[in-house]
Amino acid sequence: MGPKRSKVMSTLDSKDHQIDRLSSLPDNLLIDILSRLPLKSAAITSVLSRQWRYIWTQITNIVLDMASRTSWNWNGCVFTTANGILWQLTSPKIHRFELCLPFSTKGMKKVRFSYVESWIHDICVRNTDYIQVQGSCMWDNYPIPTCILQCQSLVVLQLIGGISIKVPHGGLVVSLPKLKKFNFSVEVLDCELLAKLFRSCPLLEDLTLAGEFLESEQCFDLSVHNLKILVIKASVYPQPKHEKFVINASKLQEITLCGTNLDFVRFVNYSNALITANIRLKSILMDKVDYLSRTTDLARLISSVSSLNLNSTILKAFTELETDLLPVFDNLSSLSITLGDGYGSWNDMLQFLRRSPKLEFLRISLPQVFRWDISEQWSGCWSRLKRIGIKYINGTDADVEMIKYLLNHAKELEVLSVYVRVPGNNKAKMSFLREKLFGLQKYSTCKIKFYGRYGLHSPPMTNEVGL
């Protein structure tokens, strides 16, 4: 009786395990699950059964990474295969469309460009919320049809890398009334396109521009926009005679300015909403009055931030201000600084530390050749810091003495991270330096973290010691 009962139970368990619980879910849940998969993976589910044959065609999120060799078999039919899959989609609403385009040889460009154009046209009529198109090679310059600038349902639009907007002979029409986030990171930034886009996007909150502006006297007035995030990594040649952007700073929370000059942007409606700032500008070419005025305005803009990233150019500009014009950075808790050569850059940083009474985290990036100044007059600058990161030191005796100085004077220091790069394939020197730094542990109770690399292609050497 016992063996027979066991056999029956085993048969029932086997049948229970054969139940397809996934297929028993309602179609709307299955569609949601498949929408989270890469497009090719979703399409493959059509072979599972008759029930699954057409479910994938209703997905609402499309991720098409054609630049990844792991996602697609790398051959000339990849665009044809993708086209066959896309044209089977039946959903009238596409929430998200992401397309990453591969490098194209000269002979294949025309065919591939026509495919991309037809895909964009089809996606834009499906009430899409989010579109991202990225060209993996900057010089490919995939032309994107202007219908993408007339998709009135769009909330997020990201155009990145080797792509360009194909402007028709009749002129450019832009209508993006719901757009809140726009990322335009390409080789050349078209001023006419940007001017029309800004006028048509009253809800714009998040703006990223990266590339080179063609010669133009166009000034973009964004004073009516309530931007919360602004990223500009751009250059203009030749240097414009006036500012390129006028920005409403009343609700600005995050800002990044890289590669431009200080007179590139003018801010209006200052507030204390700004939390994070990354300011890494080039040399500043303007007369003394404008120089001081723009530097004072920038210092005022970032005076409330809690996280700040500066390069030596801006650091020097700040320290040249009169004491009453440079604010005290009362909220600043995290500071990253890229220093230039010589004592001047180091002393500029120390003066800035004196005006940051609540600073806890400091990250310093050094040039290849650097001279330390361990004068006792600056010893008080280190007393409040809890974490310090320094990259990259070369392992000289002066470097070791500076580390010893920091351990002696940073009384509240909890973690010191040291990034070392030794030229050549000299593993022995790297190991010797590591032991030398760890030998300084007796000067402090903080933890020392060591990150080392010897040679260009060597594996990183990572160790830590401390309480």
TrEMBL record:
Residues that span the membrane, as ranges: none
Superkingdom of source: Eukaryota
Pfam families per UniProt: F-box, LRR_At5g56370
Residue ranges annotated for the F-box domain, each copy included: 19-66
Record SMART domains: FBOX
UniProt-listed PROSITE patterns: FBOX
InterPro entries linked to this entry: F-box-like_dom_sf (IPR036047), F-box_AtFBL13-like (IPR053781), F-box_dom (IPR001810), FBL13/AtMIF1-like (IPR050232), LRR_dom_sf (IPR032675), LRR_FXL15/At3g58940/PEG3-like (IPR055411)
Designated name of the protein: F-box/LRR-repeat protein At3g26922-like
Species annotation: Spinacia oleracea (Spinach)
Gene (name only): LOC110791559
